[in-house]
Design goal:
Layout lengths: L1 H19 L14 H17 L3 H15 L6 H10 L8 H10 L2 H14 L4 H15 L6
Length: 144
């Protein structure tokens, strides 16, 4: 029963991804592909999209990953994939790290904040700067 529910959820993520990212279909439509394959491909696209200020494509990506993240009640698999396969890697590059306050909603930021801290553990100043900037832009009070 659990496998069928998971397969149904996986079908939902694939169908949704096919509608939004048809050009990336070779990264997630094979039987052995997982949502992680797609999330990696989407993350790779972010730098160029941010540099070009392509808000149309950026909105599609961030909304899709947000949808995956919010499937937590139905699928821990999709929620976890969004957290560790996408969000935690946003802090790895300056352009995506600087975009976090504008593209990551406060409920998600709060949920993945410890991942950001972990990824930046050797760059504490960058982590503190991220949290302070996030708070300033989103009128939040997360503690760094």
């Amino acid at each position: 029963m659990v496998e069928n529910k998971m397969e149904g959820t996986m079908s939902a993520w694939r169908r949704k991804a096919m509608e939004l990212f048809y050009d990336a279909r070779f990264h997630f439509t094979q039987k052995d592909d997982t949502v992680y394959s797609l999330l990696l491909e989407l993350h790779i696209r972010l730098d160029e999209l941010h540099r070009n200020n392509d808000t149309f494509e950026l909105t599609k990506i961030y909304n899709y990953v947000e949808w995956c993240f919010h499937q937590g009640n139905r699928s821990h698999y999709l929620c976890n994939a969004a957290a560790v396969g996408f969000y935690e890697h946003l802090v790895d590059d300056e352009i995506t790290r600087n975009a976090i306050p504008y593209w990551v909603k406060p409920d998600i930021f709060e949920a993945v904040q410890s991942l950001f801290e972990w990824r930046l553990e050797n760059k504490l100043a960058l982590y503190i700067e991220l949290v302070m900037e996030y708070n300033k832009i989103n009128n939040t009070q997360f503690i760094s």
